[in-house]
Structures are given as C-alpha cells and as structure tokens.
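job 3f2a | input accepted
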Amino acid sequence: MRRLAEADHFRPKAYAVHRGRTYPAAAEADASGLIAVAAGDDRPEDLIADPRDPGGERFLATPEQLDAWYRIHWTFRWKGGPFDAVGTVDGRIKGVYTGGSWGFADSFQLDPETGPDGVHTQYTVQAALNNVTDLEQHRTALMAVAGAPLDLQTGARVSHPHHAIVSTGVPRP
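job 3f2a | predicted structure (173 res):
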C-alpha cells in the first residue's frame, strides 16, 4: 500500500482542461471572469500569461477557451461519522467532521481547530486509511453558463457546490 503522505490524493483540488490537456487551476474565476491555469513549462499559445505571476507559469483563460473546469474533493466515514477529506498528515487521511452531533465530536475526541473563516471551530480526525469507510471522490463542474454549478449526473443547476457531484467509490487497498 502506498503511503498517503507520498500520494496526497485527498486534498480538494481544481482542474481545467484546455485542448484536451488537464492542468491544475483556480477554484474560482477572478473579478474579470478569467480562470488561472497552472501550465508550468507547457505554454498554451492562445492563453495569456497571468501578470500577477512573476514566475510565468500561470496563464489566464476565459471559460469559452476551456473544455472543462471542475473541482475534486473526497468524503469518507470514520466510526460512522461523515467527514470531508482535507489532505493527509503523517501518512493518514485528515478529515473535517461534517455531522451535526457535538456528542460525536466529544465521544471520539476529535481535534478542535479554527475553521477557514478564522471564527468558527471545526472538528478533525487523522485516521489510517484502513479505518475509514465509504471513501468517495466527488467531481463538481465549475463551468456553467448561468454561473451556478451543474450536477454532473442530472445536468441540473444547483445552488450549493457540494450538491453538484459525481461520486465514485474507491476500492479498499
């Protein structure tokens, strides 16, 4: 089994597909509607260099120039509770508890951490992969004509990106 620290597949990431090639990308367009694409040494001819990137490895694309633009994230269950994966730590999958039971967080002594907003507390766990169940990858389409993400299974527009997903189970190692 691969060490998770070496193959950090569980961190949420965004990608853009340009002319059939997939690149890491920003998860949101900038104020002018352009999407930052990290192309590295591969310099796409029809994309403009990002003037905010002194290294010259990022380019800007309009949605019309992309074949696809999407976000991937992972979810899992540990001790029966639901979690969003946020990466790996010391070879273990790290997740943020998404259930609504403070009793669950207290009973299993989840680690309190300050959330991304700097105000609210979130509860996390670092678990060995063989101790988690229902590990699923979700793909959210970020490019939609009306601005709302599309559910990739139904094609319907949704108001919350976590509802626009295609789930795929991951076989146990």
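job 3f2a | The first helix runs from residue 102 to 107.
job 3f2a | closed
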